[in-house]
Amino acid sequence: MASEPPLILAFDTSAARCAAALVSGDRVLAIRQEAMDRGQAERLLPMLEEMLADAGAEWADLGGIAACTGPGNFTGVRIAVAAARGLALALGVPAVGVTAFEALAAAAGRSRVAIEDRRGTVFVQGFADGAPLGEPQPGDDPDPLPEAALRVDCVRVARIAAARLGSAPPPAPLYLRPADAMPPPEAPPMILDDA
After folding, report:
1. Does the predicted TM-score (pTM) go above 0.85?
2. How many CB atoms lie within 10 A of CB 166?
3. How far, in Å, are 5, 67, 104, 128, 174 from residue 30 at the CA level?
4. How confident is the model at residue 130 (pLDDT cuts 50, 70, 90)?
5. CA–CA separation, 155 vs 31, rounded Å?
6. DSSP 11-51
7. d(C-alpha 9, C-alpha 64), whole Å
8. Is 183 exposed, middle or buried (0-12, 13-18, 19+ CB in 10 A)?
9. CATH classification of 7-109+151-164, choosing from 3.30.420.40, 1.10.150.20, 3.20.20.80, 3.50.50.60?
10. Average pLDDT of the chain?
11. What is the pLDDT of residue 181?
């Protein structure tokens, strides 16, 4: 008798929304999506709990956690990655990160995905049989997807993650460029102990 495919909880907060899917093999048990410009950190875990309850599942039933790791909103990407790593640690299950490039390539059967960031730079990543051919690089594409409009399919994220359970490193944010903020050049002030 074949064993049941693992139950995967996937989510994405890299755009102006909270989105999630609960997937086991070919079965999609639940999908949720809520548009929001702010508040993903406060809404994500309650939304996941509601989704699990509606599907008749519990946290202990999960075989893995999957998160979209970007590119996207800096804070949103960090929320998803932190939630995935924290849940995986607490539940004792693997966490897998899936990039928007990977999810979009798999969804459209593309061998090349181009995303335009907020500054107008186009980043391109090639794929062969669903596997990335190197890192996303600045490039040219006549029809890139605008980063602000990315709508990653969480079912696709869950299915990609299911194939990587146990063999992928923990999720990490995908940043297309270095952070704009820089630490101050001066050393921080010394804190004196009054005791």
Report:
1. yes
2. 10
3. 16, 16, 20, 30, 26
4. confident
5. 8
6. EE-SSSEEEEEEEETTEEEEEEEEE-SS-HHHHHHHHHHHH
7. 7
8. exposed
9. 3.30.420.40
10. 91
11. 65
Where in the chain are the domains?
Answer: 7-109+151-164
Give CA–CA dist 118/12, Å, rounded: 19
Which pLDDT band, with edges at 50, 70 and 90, does 20 fall under?
Answer: very high
Report yes or no: 67 and 169 within 8 Å, Cβ to Cβ: no
Instruction: Specify the length of the chain in residues.
Output: 195
Residue 149 scores a pLDDT above 90: no
Contact 36, 185 (CB under 8 A): no
Compute φ and ψ for 21, nearest 5 degrees: -145, 145
